From TrEMBL:
<dbReference type="GO" id="GO:0006979">
    <property type="term" value="P:response to oxidative stress"/>
</dbReference>
<feature type="binding site">
    <location>
        <position position="84"/>
    </location>
    <ligand>
        <name>Ca(2+) 1</name>
    </ligand>
</feature>
<keyword id="KW-0325">Glycoprotein</keyword>
<keyword id="KW-0964">Secreted</keyword>
<dbReference type="GO" id="GO:0020037">
    <property type="term" value="F:heme binding"/>
</dbReference>
<feature type="binding site">
    <location>
        <position position="89"/>
    </location>
    <ligand>
        <name>Ca(2+) 1</name>
    </ligand>
</feature>
<feature type="disulfide bond">
    <location>
        <begin position="85"/>
        <end position="90"/>
    </location>
</feature>
<dbReference type="InterPro" id="IPR019794">
    <property type="entry name" value="Peroxidases_AS"/>
</dbReference>
<dbReference type="GO" id="GO:0140825">
    <property type="term" value="F:lactoperoxidase activity"/>
</dbReference>
<dbReference type="GO" id="GO:0042744">
    <property type="term" value="P:hydrogen peroxide catabolic process"/>
</dbReference>
<protein>
    <recommendedName>
        <fullName>Peroxidase</fullName>
        <ecNumber>1.11.1.7</ecNumber>
    </recommendedName>
</protein>
<feature type="disulfide bond">
    <location>
        <begin position="52"/>
        <end position="134"/>
    </location>
</feature>
<keyword id="KW-0408">Iron</keyword>
<feature type="disulfide bond">
    <location>
        <begin position="140"/>
        <end position="335"/>
    </location>
</feature>
<keyword id="KW-0349">Heme</keyword>
<dbReference type="InterPro" id="IPR033905">
    <property type="entry name" value="Secretory_peroxidase"/>
</dbReference>
<feature type="binding site">
    <location>
        <position position="182"/>
    </location>
    <ligand>
        <name>substrate</name>
    </ligand>
</feature>
Length: 383
């Protein structure tokens, strides 16, 4: 989308945000909802200002509820966003399930039995399709970007403005997952090469790795480190051996926290790297891998939360801007499957979605022991 187009659209929605639009489908409402500008161009924070003004409030409320039920969910939603963007751009491709002859990204080695949070995304999508003025207008890729930001903020990290207007992919690539996502066993040379191949630099590598300040990792991803690496605190390694036995056939799915404050978005991750207590080999390489600039950044962030937050926000917004490999896209009715048939007009959008078959739609769980949370004001990220 050209800059002038974005400017015109923003001015248009700002004007109409001051107009009372009837809840019934009047002609103005019909015309606007069927002529929403193409969302495959430049992103803007105002894309849904008219078509779905409650999008950010709705996503945050559901993410808050999910994290209250299971604090680990924040890390899972952030990881979904990274695994989406790092494989052929931010297009919701990692949400597509295997169906018929189609093999998506979820069964690739880095994602299999590892990506989580699909039920939360499905719950968000279903509610947005119901509450948005224009029905099915919020893309699944945008949901991931917003949910990642909210997860970071709810767990104590910075708040930042999310740019929206992405389209959802029509396909996914099993092979590209394996070739694009960095491995937990990578050395520094491979890590920086991976980031550079996506147009990112050393600072991006170090600061985006700081997302590992929240979440867990499975034994299979750190077994080799605790039994074979030399740059590891011996007491730290011994403690991990109780949950991750040397026998590769045992305990592969046991988990350990990526840092000591696994549900708080803080700088403990970096401090532990300086103490040779990084859980993953790839994490410890940022400090011990032989690159002094990287090690200096780790030290800086371990002591300066404000610097970490500032640089992290810049890099994650940059990541969220990674364009899809294909210019074709749609707004899926159900994040787990492509619309069939794909709407031929209206920029790949359909504002009216049929109820999906139960086997293709997981509305998520809402345990009775998890009461609804009041909507809270966002932490604006002042260190």
């Amino acid at each position: 989308m050209a800059t002038t187009t974005v400017h015109s659209f923003v001015c248009f929605v700002v004007f109409f945000s001051m107009v009372v639009v009837p809840s019934s489908s009047g002609q103005l409402h019909h015309d606007f909802c069927n002529n929403i500008p193409n969302s495959s161009g430049q992103l803007t924070p105002y894309y849904y200002r008219f078509s779905c003004p409650n999008v950010f409030i709705t996503v945050r409320r559901i993410v808050e509820q999910a994290i209250k039920c299971e604090p680990r969910m924040g890390a899972s939603l952030l990881r979904l966003h990274f695994h989406d963007c790092w494989v052929n751009g931010c297009d919701g491709s990692d949400l597509l399930i295997d169906i018929g002859n189609f093999i998506g990204e979820q069964s690739a080695i880095p994602n299999k039995n590892s990506l989580r949070g699909f039920d939360v995304v499905a719950q968000i999508k279903a509610e947005l399709n119901s509450v948005c003025r224009c029905g099915n207008v919020v893309s699944c890729a945008d949901i991931l970007a917003i949910a990642a930001r909210d997860s970071i903020n709810i767990l104590g990290g910075p708040w930042y403005q999310v740019l929206v207007g992405r389209l959802d992919s029509l396909t996914a690539s099993f092979a590209d997952v394996n070739s694009n996502l960095p491995s937990p066993f990578s050395n520094f040379t491979k890590l920086i090469a991976n980031f550079q191949s996506h147009g990112f630099g050393l600072k991006d590598l170090v600061v985006l790795s700081g997302a590992h300040t929240i979440g867990l990792a499975r034994c299979g991803t750190f077994r080799s480190r605790i039994y074979n690496d030399n740059d590891i605190n011996s007491n730290f390694a011994d403690g991990l051996k109780t949950v991750c036995p040397a026998n590769a056939s045992l305990g592969g799915n046991n988990t350990a926290p990526l840092d000591a404050t696994t549900n708080v978005f803080d700088t403990v991750y970096y401090r532990e790297l300086t103490q040779q207590m990084g859980l993953l080999h790839s994490d410890q390489e940022l400090y011990s891998g032989g690159n002094q600039t990287s090690a200096d950044l780790v030290t800086k962030y371990s002591k300066n939360r404000a610097a970490f937050w500032k640089d992290f926000v810049v890099s994650i917004i940059k990541m969220g801007n990674l364009p899809p490999a294909s210019g074709n896209g749609q707004v899926r009715c159900n994040c787990s499957i492509v619309n069939n048939p794909s709407p031929p007009n209206n920029h790949g959008k359909t504002t009216s979605c049929p109820s999906p078959p139960p086997s293709f739609f997981n509305p998520g769980t809402n345990p009775t022991h998890c009461p609804s949370l009041p909507t809270s004001s966002p932490n604006l990220g002042s260190p």
